[in-house]
Structures are given as structure tokens and as C-alpha cells.
Amino acid sequence: MDGSDLRGSPQQGLITATFGFFIGFAGVVLYGPVAPQFGEAMGLSGFLLGLLVAAPQLSGSLLRIPFGAWTDDVGAKRPFIILLLLSIVGMTGLAVILLYLYPDGLAFRHFPLVFLFGSLSGCGIAVFSIGSAQTSYWYPTDKQGTALAIYAGLGNSSPGVATLIVPVVITAVGITQTYLLWLGLLVVGTGIFAYYTVDPYYFQLRKQGLNAEPAKEQAQAEGQELFPSGNAMESIRNAAKIRRVWALVAMFFVSFGGFLALSVWLPSYWIELHGLDIRSAGVVTAITFVLVAALIRVPGGWVSDTVGGEPTAIVSFGAIGCSSILLVITRDLWTAIAATFLLAVGMGVANAAVFQLVPKYVPEAVGGASGLVGGLGAFGGFVVPPLLGLFVDFQGVDGYATGFVIYLVLGVGGMILASRLYRNVQQQPGTPAIS
């Protein structure tokens, strides 16, 4: 068996992983653009509204851990497709609800069902850790920061695109038809991904019957540098034993979890506090936050490769803290827009910096570490919106602004963790990064 039996290339691996992530990750904003309508139809409090818009993040975050580690066993293609299919099931259930219950038949008693289908629809979000591991296995170590930033940056742009387009389509054809179109695009996109995606060389060789060591040797000859350490549970255990992995988890909770939370919460913020209509709120959320935070990851990855992930993260978390202070105190629309833009830049660059550090610290268990960091970190997208909703329950409309004190605390915490990592590296420059 020789290299002629192998298919694909790093470029193809990156393109297909990014495409699959793009179509699955749009589920982040499943309820965000229509949160006020759903909240009004079911009579939800601020806390329950925050819980509803965060529903996709529940499965989208926790499933990253086992599926990211499973990638170390079987490659990325099979786990990727399974999660996208589960997302299709959830979207189908939501479409049925909209067809038969929305708006007059939808009531508070339907909240558990709407939450369930939202959680299933969020399964596509969980492909993040799978695609991260796949990209890491395709690319050499010195190019991973840039490759992962391209993957995550372009893939992360899908909630922004959805937030921008969904309100416009809703205005034109209504909520039900909009979500039916979304379901159709998800089905077609899943089919395209399944047809074109290719696992990294090592996993192709294993599926062709080679044992681990011969497969590793041949894949190395083809240019692959990183390899899984063992089975899925072993990958998770190996990653969990490394103390710095948990620092990365906490940092990603702030940056990526924070990004997910605001992607679904900001439309309500612009509508309720600043009086924008649904279309304007979608445009402002997409342009000033979601797309900025997503696309800035690409140059953020380059900066992380150039100056180091730790110092890049320190500055980024500082930007998160400073912008949060502005959002707490301002009621002016344009000041809030500027602060949101700064917040997006801080979160996007911090996301790139954190994931640039994953293969550096955990080269022997990239899948498990990606699952832990991506899964538990992204869980912030589920935890934070209900907390923001509590501020609204206690303070009314002003709670949409004062709730950003949560991000001030998170930003300061991220700075402290990144600073500690940087000090350790500076004090022990000749020691391995995994300790």
C-alpha cells in the first residue's frame, strides 16, 4: 500500500471542515432573531427567554467532548455527519411546531418541546471540536494557528450571516417559511459535506487495514505530523490530566462561550433597550458583532502564530473588559455599537489565541483536548444568556445594559489566566509546554 491509495489534501480537509462547520454552526442563532416573538407567544420571563435562545448551546457544547474525542478513533467524517443529521431531526421538529402551532396555538406549555427541538438543532454546533481536530491532523504544527483561524473564523461567520438574513426573509415570507427554507439548506449542505469530505491520511490508512504504527509511518511520509494517542476515552483522560488544559477551558468559556451567548442575546438587547426593529437589530448584531468576531479570528490566528498565543490572549481579554464597562454605563446607540465592535474584536482574537495553544500544550491528545476546551468552553453560551435574563427580570429594560457586568468579570478572569500562562512560559522557556 502506498501514497497512491490516499485521497485528499490539507486544503481539501480545511475547506470541507469549514463548510461543514458553517452549515452546522448557524444553529447558534436558531431562536435569537425571533426571541421576542417566541417570548411573547409563550409568555416567557427574561430568564426563560435566555434559556430558550441558549437551547442549541446545550447539545452544541456538551456533545463536543465525546465527539471531539471520538475523532481520535475514527477520523472526522462519521462523527461530523451524525451530528449534522441530528441537527436535521431537530429542525424538522421545529418546522412541524411552526406549521401547526405558531403563532396562536403556541403557549407556555409548549416550552419544553420547543426547548427540546432547539437543543437537537444545536447538535450541528458540536462539530466545532471535530473540525478543529481534523484541521490539526491535516496541517503541520507551525501552520496550525493560521489554518485553525481560517476554519473557525469562516465557520463562525454563519451565525452572523443567519442573523443578517433571517429577519429579512421573515419580513418577506414569514417565520414558518423562513425556517422551512433553513431546514432545506441544512439538508442540502449535509449532503454536499458527506460527498466531498476526506479524513486525514492516518485515518484513511487505518480504514484500509493498516495497524497504528505502519499507518503512522506512512502518514508521516505524506506530511502528517500530529497523531491520536489512543482511543476516545484515553484521549479525554490524557487531556484532562494536563493542568493547563483547564486554564484553556476557562479562557474559552469567556471568549467563545461569551461569543455564543451574545450572538443570541444581542438582538433582544438592540430591540428592547435601543428601540430597533427586528431587521435593524439583526443587521447591527451581525455586522458589529457576529461577523466581526468570526472573521477577526483569521488575522488573530496569524498574530498568535507570530507573537504567541498567551500575550495575544492577554490583550484580547483586556479589550473584552474595557468594552463591557462601556456597555454597562451607556444608553447611547452609537457608543453601544462602538463598544460592541471592540467586544467582538476582543472575543474573536481571544478565540484564535486559545485554540492556537491547544496543539502546543496537548500534541498527544488533540482530539480530547479540543473536545474539553471546545465543549466545556462553549458551555458558556448556554450558561450566560439565562443570567443576562435575570438582570432583565430584576431591573426591567435597564437590565439589558447592566447585565454586561458579567462580561467585565469574565474578561478580567481571562486576563489573569492568560497572564499566568505567559509568566510560566517566560520563567521556563526551555521546558515543554505540557505540564
TrEMBL record:
Belongs to the major facilitator superfamily. Nitrate/nitrite porter (TC 2.A.1.8) family. It comes from the Archaea. This is MFS transporter, NNP family, nitrate/nitrite transporter. It is a multi-pass membrane protein. The chain crosses the membrane at residues 12-32, 44-67, 79-102, 108-128, 148-173, 179-198, 245-266, 278-300, 312-330, 336-358, 365-388, 400-418. GO terms for cellular component: membrane. It comes from Halohasta litchfieldiae. It holds the Pfam family MFS_1. InterPro entries: MFS (IPR011701), MFS_dom (IPR020846), MFS_trans_sf (IPR036259), NO3_transporter (IPR044772). Residues 13-426 form the Major facilitator superfamily (MFS) profile domain. Keywords: Membrane, Nitrate assimilation, Transmembrane, Transmembrane helix. PROSITE patterns: MFS. The keyword Oxidoreductase does not apply. GO terms for biological process: nitrate assimilation. It is found in: Membrane. The keyword Membrane applies. GO terms for molecular function: nitrate transmembrane transporter activity. SUPFAM superfamilies: MFS general substrate transporter.
